[in-house]
Design a protein that fits this description.
The complex is a heterodimer of chains A (108) and B (119).
Chain A (H helix, E strand, L loop, with lengths): L8 E4 L5 E6 L9 E5 L6 E4 L13 E6 L2 E6 L8 E9 L4 E4 L3 E5 L1
Parallel strand pairs in A: 1-9
Antiparallel strand pairs in A: 2-6, 3-4, 3-7, 5-6, 7-8, 7-9
Chain B lengths: L2 E5 L3 E2 L5 E8 L8 E7 L6 E7 L4 E3 L7 E6 L4 E6 L8 E8 L8 E2 L3 E5 L2
Parallel strand pairs in B: 2-11
Antiparallel strand pairs in B: 1-3, 3-8, 4-5, 4-9, 5-6, 7-8, 9-10, 9-11
Classes of the chains: A mainly beta (108), B mainly beta (119).
Chain lengths: 108, 119
């Protein structure tokens, strides 16, 4: 089955940019979605179709997808961005939704 | 506004059956959406369990397929999950969610419900 690989953690200073990667075989051929999850809360979709933002999500959140890596970028990081971030795709070869293991973003 | 709400027992005995319902409001469950169950063990990541289309077409996580059934009740506008032969490893927060299509993201989620497997 298809595997998505994320780094377990990422630390960033306030005001800097955080980049969370999601690796997968030829991931550029898939639509990648990103979720933010804060402790005790349900996940929230922050990026869909690689780079689109749902209404209400700040422009500071952006996404890209190329080759074997998709990237979520959080610009001008704020304390409130501290959360776990998960990437997700639909794998049509196995008819499964697949999540990455998640990356904990810590704001220093 | 689309809203999803999980309900069901919070405690299930080992070897028993976990049964959950997701009540949907703000949209008809008969519309062109995929309805999904996702779970998250304590301190762990998200795991997709199963999904169902309004036609009744289903997909299952291969690692759980032998124990899982997902179903729709159009009259009640809800969908359900059954997981049999549960063990402590099935202890998790269970979420229901919606996706407008298989290649789209999950745009609406329930708040989640903790199910503990213990005697």
């Amino acid at each position: 089955s298809y595997v998505l690989t994320q780094p377990p953690s990422e630390s960033v200073a306030p005001g800097e940019s955080a980049r969370v990667t999601c690796g997968g075989n030829n991931i550029v051929s898939k639509s990648v979605h990103w979720y933010q999850q804060k402790p005790g809360q349900a996940p929230v979709l922050v990026i869909y179709y690689d780079s689109d933002r749902p209404s209400g999500i700040p422009e500071r959140f952006s996404g890209s997808n190329s080759g074997n890596t998709a990237t979520l970028t959080i610009s001008r990081v704020e304390a409130g961005d501290e959360a776990d971030y998960y990437c997700q795709v639909w794998d049509s070869s196995s008819d499964q939704f697949v999540f990455g293991a998640g990356t904990k973003v810590t704001v220093l | 506004q689309v809203q999803l709400q999980e309900s069901g027992p919070g405690l299930v005995k080992p070897s028993g059956t976990l049964s959950l319902t997701c009540s949907v409001s703000g949209v008809s469950i008969s519309d062109n959406n995929w309805w999904t169950w996702v779970r998250q063990p304590p301190g762990g990541g998200l795991e997709w369990i199963a999904d169902i289309f309004h036609t009744g077409s289903t997909d299952y996580n291969p690692s759980l397929k032998s124990r899982v059934t997902i179903s729709l009740d159009k009259a009640k506008n809800h969908f359900s999950l059954k997981l049999t032969s549960v063990t402590a490893a099935d202890t998790a927060v269970y979420y229901c969610a919606r996706s407008p299509s298989r290649v789209a993201g999950f745009d609406f989620w329930g708040q989640g419900t903790l199910v503990t497997v213990s005697s």
